[in-house]
Amino acid sequence: MPEPTQQMAALRLLLAKLSVPLSLRVTLGAFAGSLILGLVLIAMLGFPVLSAMRVAVEGAFGDARAMADTLVFMTPRLLVALGALIAIRGGLFNLGGEGQLQMGAIGAMLPFLAFGDIGPLLMPLAILSGALCGALWGLIPAVLKLWRGADEIIVTLLMNFIAIYFVKYLVQGPMRPVGSTFNMSAQLPREGIFVPLIDGTRLHLGVILAVVIALAIWVLLQHTAFGLKLRASGQSPGFVRLQGQSAGRVALSSMALSGAIGGLAGAFEVLGVQYRLIDGFSSGLGFEGLAVAFLAGLEPFGAVVVSLYFGAINSAALALQSSLSIPAALADVLSGLPILLLAVISGVMLIKGKPVWTSTR
Amino acid sequence: MDLNSVTIALFLAAGVRMSVPVLLAALGELVSERAGVFTIGLEGLMLFGAVASAVGLAMTGSPVAALAIGMLGGTLAAVVLALGTVLARANQIVMGIGFNLLAMGVTSLIRQLVLGDTPPAGSLRSVTMMKLPWLSDLPVVGRALFSQSPVFYAAVLLAVALWLMFRFSRLGLLLRAAGENASALDAAGQPVLRLRFGAALFTGMLAGLGGAYLCIIASGGTFIDDMTAGRGYLAIAISIFARWLPLRTLLVAFALGLLEALQFQGQYLGIQIATPLLMATPFVVALVAWVVMGRVGAAPGDLGKPFLRGAGH
What ipTM does this complex have? Predict the structure, then answer.
């Protein structure tokens, strides 16, 4: 029979082994807090809480169709988040996810507009072109930063709006089919799109690719020389220079990669959801994706989990609206709340000298 | 196509009208950015101001009271935002993005649950139009500048007042110091957090008035979901483009208002440019200006940095 103090020590050791990292605890707290606030809100509005909870869970995960919807809502947010976290961990605050997504969507249309219906080659070309457009759009702020010292936060913020209006211009003019009155491009041919993988659902190839990309980003960051250089330049640019490495090259390649992934987010929306370029297809996905990256503690796998939450909230909100007439605007509330809570909690931890995450790690 | 003085006057007047909400928000953003707080949540603050004014109009029936309630709504929303960004030292960008999302949801809920479908009755003329004596009789400018909403005159006076404040007053100096080098200001024994908090509330008040203008004056008292449509972000771009100078902000906002008016009245003036390209120009111009200035015209030194005592530089 061990001494009580020994027992305590063993217990403490066990707890220490089980203990989750601070960032995870804080994040879970933020989500739990906002879900509770959401339920309180639903109750305050006079809706039945228990049946709302059931409808929400069924609406997000209940059957194949609901699950597929959740995953489809997850995909663009995940991709933008992955793009954002690469840039941020490399030391550049890429606020331009929205713009890179818009340019990627344009890029996905270009092969069809250039070559017409060229069969099975069309879809891979569209993916490539979407990534390329996003990468070019992402490179601009990096070049301006290195060349002119222009702050990338402000440049990417401004470039978002240029891209949004450029899409508006294209669908109202050059890309609009002759005789059409709708602000959208022509529809892509069937060979050129992601056809639903399971009949009766919206599940598309982009969902799977997005998760694969998350895995690839994790490998890149943690297990490659480039990833090490990237994280080092985010943490301490001076150190990278001392090592005789070019900080500029890391900045350029991380922003190009970041933009390419953001571009894929837009391309997959075109190829897998809309099948055409359409005005207002994004509704701020780029900004949400950036918030996802932070909620995920700038970790690729975290981003999968957090964007899954965002996807679930969005499909649950649709179900709540159709079966209980709870306004779908609740989705925005439940997406915004955890971001606010996490930002506040991590700010408080920063004051206490125990930062949960920093913008560059 | 005849370009007579009436056409020009109407075009200028429309430009002025469209510039007001963005001008107010940009002046607000300028103050908080000068004090070191990057208010990405400006869009959300405008939305709260707009919905508060719509509720105010429905409750009181008085457009003047509605504008005041809009300002109050923006200020209260800014309290929430500033508790995070200023006091809790939350990351200002992340906080702002979350706040904008939340604002979109909450204001839409308020519209659906509080505001009915019936459009507000009663005259709004007391806030939409105030002809200044003598001045409004002048040719062209009389109609363009001096037959506007009293809110427009207030915004112009405010821009001048802010210019005076930042240039000549002690408060202006303190605010600038809070944004330029908060640690030094703190070492001098000045209350950095109180200054930043106050600046953030002021931003909320002005953004709220901008939103209220959109709702009460520009769309007859009806709140529409996401009715700010990116104007908050445009206002941020303006404040940056104007290099945080109030009078330049006034001019830039007016120029952008003219661009916006061009999309409605361009055809009368014989100008044919695709509207979206027109709307993108301010952002392109701001970008070019930002790049050309490069390292020279730098932003306030501590812009976007939460103040931590002893963190140093």
Answer: 0.84
